[in-house]
Amino acid sequence: MADENKIVTPSDIEEAKTETVDTQTTATVENTVAEKDEKVESVVTDEEIASVEITQPQKAQSSSLRAQMKSLRDEEEEEAKEKEEEKSQPEEEPVRGDSIIEEKLAKIEKEEKMSKAEARAEKAALKAAEKAAKEEAKAVNKKETKQKKVQPKEKGKKKMQTYQHRQNKYGYAFMAPWIVGFLLFTLFPFVATIFLSFMNVKKAATGYVLKFAGINNYITAFIKNSDFLPALLSYLKMIIPYTFIVVVLSFIIAYLLNKIKTGKGLLRTIYFLPVIIMSGPVMSQLLDVQNAAAEATQKVSGAVDAADQYSNIFIMQMIQSYSAPLATTLAQVFDQLSIILWFTGIPIVLFINGLQKINVSIYEAAKIDSANAWQIMWKITIPMLRQIGMIITIFTVIQLGTYEAINPVYTLILEQTGDTASGLGYAATYAWIYSIIVLIIVGFVLLLFKERKPKDIKDRKRQEKKLAKLEKQQMKRLKKQNRYAKKEAKKYGK
Q1: CA-derived radius of gyration, the chain
Q2: What does the pLDDT read at residue 425?
Q3: What residues have CB less than 8 Å from 270, skipping those under 6 apart?
Q4: CA proximity to 238, closest of 290, 179, 285
Q5: CA geometry: angle at 404 spanning 403 and 408, to 5°?
Q6: What is the pLDDT of residue 400?
Q7: Which of 119, 245, 340, 380 is the most exposed place for a label (fewest CB within 10 A)?
Q8: pLDDT tens digits, residue range 224-283?
Q9: Which residues cross the membrane (predicted)?
Q10: Domain parsing of the chain, residue ranges
């Protein structure tokens, strides 16, 4: 009875608290709960006391119990008040054990927050990767849909193919004569001359006999033959000034004709007439005059023969009235002028067409900017006619090469092929050497008429190239990033 009726005092509770402070939080809570339960169990309620039959010796005990109950209730009320006051007042520094526990709890909370932030960042990266993948898929789908829309149906394809085949057939049919002529008269002789230039050709009873000669034909052309190199040098001396004079004179005449407002057609026909007339009997007479003048330069007694040849032409009859030296010089000048006028007909027509294609508003804008005629010609007209001038120059070089008075190599080729059959190999070598020189001249003309870009445009192009390289590098980096994002998305998706 003494153990059961034992009363737990507040001092006992405080001692229990101090003993359990250094233990873990869970143990302290459980101990305090157990102690409170023991208090409640140790206290005897009024109802239990009333239910017990109180004897006279026990009345004193009951009164003492009631006094103890009141004291306990008062203590509990005081403790509740103190707790409320502690809540209202600022918190005091915790006990050492409580501070350690709180620090551990704070660390745990921080770690939880960090893990949550990392999880959020990972989720955001996954969402971004998914969005990028979706956008790429959408772009691919759009391209595929566009291609599908653009592509016609199978029936339409067949119809288009049949139409294209028909058009191709018609085109090849119209080109067939030119293709046959090119194969027979250009490609076959081209290949045959290469073959013949390394062969010795001899005529036998059974036909032509070909023997491989190697480089002997080229050695004879440059070393053994004394006529080929002088003829080649004379051609180079003649072709450069003649080409320059023909191109410049034809440009000047075309420029002046373009400025004329009335009678353009008549003047064009007049300047184009030498091209037509030179193919007739007049050409043969001029060639006779030319040959006579050439002989007159080589022989003193040939001046009389030249005068006899000149007598057939009215202009030559006028020249013949002067002294012999003056007559020869005038005959040569007339000869050169006739050749130049003969070769200026086609270039004049081409230059006029090029001048008419230039937009008039460009000239008007230049005049508004106070540009004179000289500046307009050098800054607008000549640059705009660069391509046409290149074509005319190449055409003139090739056309002058067919004229025997300017190109003595042409006469050597004809003599080698016309005299004997054994000269076919030498003629092929001469032709190939001449054609290589013509190609070199044409290459020089192409370089001369090439468009020269200013420094600003070159710098811009360099900058554009650098920017293109940087863009390529950025695209590569973006592709790598997209691949890495896709890999991460696949990993987290799994």
Answers
A1: 58
A2: 81
A3: none
A4: 290
A5: 125
A6: 86
A7: 119
A8: 878 888 888 888 888 888 899 999 999 998 888 888 877 777 777 777 777 776 655 555
A9: 170-198, 239-257, 269-287, 337-355, 426-449
A10: 10-79, 122-147+455-494, 227-406
Q: How far is CA 175 from CA 5, 30, 162, in A?
A: 132, 109, 20
Neighbours of 31 (CB within 10 A): 15
Helix H, strand E, coil C: the string for the chain is CCCCCCCCCHHHHHHHHHHCCCCCHHHHHHHHHHHHHHHHHHCCCHHHHHHCCCCHHHHHHHHHHHHHHHHHHHHHHHHHHHHHHHHHCCCCCCCHHHHHHHHHHHHHHHHHHHHHHHHHHHHHHHHHHHHHHHHHHHHHHHHHHHHHHHCCCHHHHHHHHHHHHHHHHHHHHHHHHHHHHHHHHHHHHHHHHHHHCCEEEEECCCCEEEEECCCHHHHHHHHHCCCHHHHHHHHHHHHHHHHHHHHHHHHHHHHHHHHCCCCHHHHHHHHHHHHHHCCCHHHHHHHHHHHHHHHHHHCCCHHHHHHHHHCCCHHHHHHHCCCHHHHHHHHHHHHHHHHHHHHCHHHHHHHHHHHHHCCHHHHHHHHHCCCCHHHHHHHHHHHHCHHHHHHHHHHHHHHHHCCCCCCHHHHHHHHHHHHCHHHHHHHHHHHHHHHHHHHHHHHHHHHHCCCCCCHHHHHHHHHHHHHHHHHHHHHHHHHHHHHHHHHHHHHHHC
Both tokens of 233, joined, read 């040098």
Q: How far is residue 471's CA from residue 464's CA, in Å, rounded to a whole number? A: 10
Task: Provide, rounded to the nearest whole percent, the portion of the chain with pLDDT above 90.
Answer: 5
Task: Decide if 289 contacts 309 (C-beta within 8 A).
Answer: yes
Span of 182-191, 364-373, 400-409 with lowest mean pLDDT: 400-409
| Max CA separation in the chain (angstroms) | 191
pLDDT in tens, 18-43: 554 444 445 554 555 455 445 444 44
Report the chain's mean pLDDT, rounded to a whole number: 73
pLDDT digit string (tens) for 304-321? 454 454 445 556 667 666
Contacts of 221 (CB under 8 A, 6+ apart): 228, 426, 429, 430, 433
Integer Cα distance of 82 and 62 in angstroms: 30
Whole-angstrom distance, CA of residue 103 vs CA of residue 204: 121
